[in-house]
């Protein structure tokens, strides 16, 4: 914190600015900050048609049809986002957007960058699904307003709003592996101006399960999570609008061999079993303030701070990281003409990341070198300025062109980020969109590739951390039409291409027992085409069908190869039916996952994996104040048979739990209960 | 594993059976009540009213009388009473003769219906 204390005072002054302006200005209510309103209540997901970017919104109603305990489980009905486990022992999940891992897309909480850097690998587990009001997934280069980091797209999360949510809601969940969850939401409105919300989440996983019984390793770690959010909202009559949010998360996990006990890692010479331990403490705060200065000019400010401290143990390695992040953004929105709009602003980010990977010196007969493998310290200060110009001719045509400039102190580089978006609606409900842009990112060697810690591969990393740079461009067509009354057909097709200029490559293919990190030398790209269709053949029964083809390649030691763990194709079928007034609701999702390339590894399987089906379904019964739901995950019970190679020799080089391409958990039943007080 | 699945199916089947058994003819204690809803402004409010009545205990059926801004409800007198039904409408944001609408629920109504249920001049011209 000390490092950035010099930033805090000027930032606080800047934050106070709107308050001063407000005191001097007594303008009538002209403009409020753009707030997001859900469309029809029953819509589960929709394409935001008016948006200039391709934007798919998953609503809270859509999430209720899934057992989404957390964000990582919220994308089962979306073909755009793929979710997989990062390894076979920690239970952490990672997402892919446009064929590239989630680190290349920008995660945002209410339009403020969120879960960056080292918080990213476990971060999906820190967002309880029940808190979410909506998730919007935008593909392609995002707006320049939020920084240079989004390369493949942005995922924006909206938590429940205190002025709109129920006064009290409770959700209880229990599954057949004895994972229990409780979510409570309290909202209170003091008066027309001030309201507050409290979101509480607790989860505990109490049963050690190895349902195949092949290896005696826990399929999913024992886990405890406590997560609290408190937010305040103030809306003044003159349009001044302020949102402040505090979030604290604590999580611990214990995984690996069932015989491994917490603390065994520290015991000299007695460490016999492979264990996973993880502790995370995270604090996040943001405040957003905005107000109209006059009828044509709006002002907005964003300030956020986050602190993440994680310590973990992977067998004979311990991996610790800390991150501090301060971000401030000031934005001016000016209506320059009847059809044109200009947004401009300045931003400042200060971030400090420390990663440390240490071998356990107490274990004898271990093949890995002792001592510190790797220590990585990245402190960067990034001041920037941006402008975005929008031309909007009614609903017919919209174009935005944005440009931002940043200076990155860690890489000592001046970065220029151009982005362009276009939307054209020649006839009603036929929409063409195009986007292109550049993005940058500072990689974190271990955190970005957290899965490899679950193997005993030797890590080779020499030289400087490069600044990753990529260009992204794409097209999208959207057509909606009605066959008859209320029988709507929606079709969306899109193609996106991402081309890396520089990248930190994790090479798993040189040797089964090593991983090499180096800067990209050659091509690295991703091309993804997707088709989505939905149709309502009978009233209240909807069919959604989606297909996706991916071609994701990267150059490893001069050879252009498929990127590992990326499906070549994927298909999705979602069936939903509800009775009148949604008293009963049935959801069934079927995913067909195409082959993925496995990198060179110590276990026998190599090359391409088999295609597999993953199915999940849920029945919901709604009553006046409460809802009861029950469902099954992984209905077909397809699991990867031997996910942990060398499980009986965990400290030798034949151990590898990082080769994961299919579900690890077998068929799972769950029951849940929701209670609402308006 | 299979056993658990069969048990699950059995529970689900029982639940479905219970529900379908509820669909029967007009019960003996059925009565009709007229509930005035001065907050009604246009058809956009109908889904809110229908959703409320659909989940209200003891409500058998209803018809909406738009001309007189009221709803005629058939209910079971052993299970509920007109006052309770009226209260539930106001809880869901609909202004009724005797109850002011819940301000939080008003925010969930379609935009054009909000003023009328707050007791202000209707914005959709009704």
Explained architecture:
The complex is a heterodimer of chains A (678) and B (126). Chain A is mainly beta. Chain A has a single domain, classed as Maltoporin, Chain A, CATH 2.40.170.20. Chain A contains three helices and 37 strands. Chain A has helices at 5-24, 60-63, 120-123, and strands at residues 45-47, 54-59, 81-85, 93-97, 100-101, 105-109, 112-113, 132-139, 153-159, 168-175, 179-189, 194-205, 222-235, 241-256, 275-292, 297-314, 317-335, 340-359, 372-393, 397-408, 413-427, 430-441, 458-461, 468-484, 487-502, 504-507, 514-519, 524-538, 541-556, 559-562, 569-578, 584-593, 597-598, 607-608, 612-622, 626-633, 668-677. In chain A, the strands form five sheets. Chain A has a 22-stranded antiparallel barrel. In chain A, strands 1-2-8-9-6-7 form a six-stranded mixed β-sheet. In chain A, 47% of the residues are buried. The model of chain A is unreliable at 1-41 (pLDDT under 50). With 126 residues, chain B is an alpha+beta fold. Chain B has helices at residues 2-21, 46-54, 82-91, 103-106, 114-118, and strands at 30-36, 59-65, 70-76. Chain B has a three-stranded antiparallel β-sheet with strand order 1-3-2, covered by helices on one side. The longest helix of chain B is centred in the N-terminal third of the chain and has 20 residues, at 2-21. Chain B contains five helices and three strands, in the order αβαββααα. Mean pLDDT of chain B is 82; it is low at 16-21. Chain B has one domain (30-118): 2-Layer Sandwich (Alpha-Beta Plaits), CATH 3.30.70. At the A-B interface, β35 of A face α1, α2 and α4 of B.
């Amino acid at each position: 914190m000390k490092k950035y204390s010099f930033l805090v005072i000027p930032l606080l002054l800047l934050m106070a600015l709107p308050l001063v302006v407000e005191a001097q200005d007594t303008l009538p209510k002209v403009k409020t900050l753009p707030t997001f309103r859900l469309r029809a209540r029953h819509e589960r997901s929709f394409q935001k048609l008016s948006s200039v970017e391709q934007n798919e919104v998953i609503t809270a109603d859509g999430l209720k049809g899934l057992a989404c305990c957390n964000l990582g489980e919220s994308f089962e009905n979306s073909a755009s986002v793929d979710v997989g486990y990062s390894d076979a022992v920690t239970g952490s999940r990672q997402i892919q957007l446009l064929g590239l891992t989630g680190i290349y897309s920008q995660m945002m909480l209410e339009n403020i960058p969120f879960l960056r850097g080292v918080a990213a690998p476990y971060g999906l587990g820190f967002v309880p699904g029940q808190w979410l009001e909506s998730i919007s997934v935008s593909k392609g280069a995002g707006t320049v307003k939020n920084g240079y980091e989004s390369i493949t797209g942005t995922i924006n999360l909206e938590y429940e709003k205190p002025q709109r949510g129920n006064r009290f809601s409770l959700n209880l969940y229990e599954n057949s592996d004895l994972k229990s969850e409780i979510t409570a939401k309290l909202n209170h409105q003091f008066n027309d101006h001030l309201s507050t919300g409290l979101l509480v989440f607790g989860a505990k996983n109490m049963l050690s399960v190895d349902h195949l019984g092949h290896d005696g390793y826990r399929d999913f770690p024992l886990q405890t999570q406590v997560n609290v959010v408190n937010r305040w909202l103030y809306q003044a009559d003159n349009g001044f609008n302020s949102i402040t949010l505090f979030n604290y998360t604590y999580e611990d996990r214990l995984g690996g061999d069932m015989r491994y006990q917490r603390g065994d890692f520290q015991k000299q010479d007695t460490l016999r079993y492979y264990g996973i331990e993880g502790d995370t403490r995270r604090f996040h705060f943001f405040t957003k303030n905005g107000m109209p200065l006059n009828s044509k000019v709006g002002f907005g400010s964003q300030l956020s701070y986050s602190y993440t401290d994680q310590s973990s143990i992977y067998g004979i390695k311990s991996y610790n990281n800390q991150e501090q992040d301060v971000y401030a953004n000031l934005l001016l929105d000016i209506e320059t003409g009847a059809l044109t709009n200009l947004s401009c602003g300045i931003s400042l980010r200060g971030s400090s990341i420390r990663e440390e990977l240490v071998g356990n010196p107490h274990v004898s007969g271990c093949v890995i070198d002792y001592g510190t493998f790797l220590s990585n310290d990245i402190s960067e200060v990034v001041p920037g300025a941006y402008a975005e110009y929008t031309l909007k001719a009614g609903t017919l045509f919209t174009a935005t062109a944005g440009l931002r400039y940043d200076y990155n102190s860690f890489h000592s580089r001046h970065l220029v980020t151009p982005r362009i978006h276009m939307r054209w609606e020649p006839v009603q409900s036929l929409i063409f969109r195009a986007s292109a842009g550049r993005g940058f990112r500072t990689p974190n060697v271990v955190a970005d590739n957290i899965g490899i810690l679950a193997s005993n591969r030797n890590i080779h990393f020499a030289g400087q951390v490069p600044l990753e740079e990529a260009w992204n461009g794409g097209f999208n067509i959207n057509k909606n039409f009605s066959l008859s009354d209320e029988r709507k057909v929606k079709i969306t097709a899109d193609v996106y291409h991402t081309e890396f200029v520089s990248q930190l490559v994790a090479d798993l293919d040189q040797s089964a027992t090593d991983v090499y990190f180096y800067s990209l030398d050659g091509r690295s790209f991703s091309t993804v085409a997707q088709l989505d269709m939905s149709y309502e053949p009978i009233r209240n029964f909807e069919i959604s069908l989606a297909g996706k083809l991916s071609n994701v390649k990267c150059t490893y030691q001069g050879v252009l190869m498929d990127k590992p763990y990326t499906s070549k194709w994927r298909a999705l079928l979602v069936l939903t039916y509800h009775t009148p007034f949604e008293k009963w609701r049935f959801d069934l999702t079927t995913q067909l996952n195409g082959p993925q390339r496995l990198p060179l590894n110590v276990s026998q399987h190599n090359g391409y994996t088999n295609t597999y089906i993953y199915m999940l379904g849920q029945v919901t019964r709604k009553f006046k104040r409460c809802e009861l739901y029950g469902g099954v995950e992984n209905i077909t019970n397809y699991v990867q048979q031997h996910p942990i190679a060398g499980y009986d020799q965990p400290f030798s080089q034949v151990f590898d739990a990082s080769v994961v391409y299919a579900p690890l958990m077998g068929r799972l039943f769950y029951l849940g209960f929701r209670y609402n007080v308006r | 594993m299979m056993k658990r699945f069969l048990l699950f199916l059995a529970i689900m089947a029982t639940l479905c059976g219970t529900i379908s058994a509820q669909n029967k003819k007009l019960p003996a204690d059925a009565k009709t009540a007229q509930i005035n809803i001065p907050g009604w402004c246009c058809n956009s409010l109908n889904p809110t009213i229908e959703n409320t009545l659909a989940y209200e205990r003891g409500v058998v059926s209803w018809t909406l009388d738009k001309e007189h801004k009221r709803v005629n409800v058939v209910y079971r007198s052993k299970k509920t009473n007109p006052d309770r039904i009226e209260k539930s409408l106001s809880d869901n944001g609909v202004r009724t003769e005797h109850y002011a609408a819940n301000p939080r629920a008003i925010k969930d109504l379609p935009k054009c219906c909000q003023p009328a249920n707050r007791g202000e001049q209707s914005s959709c011209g009704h």
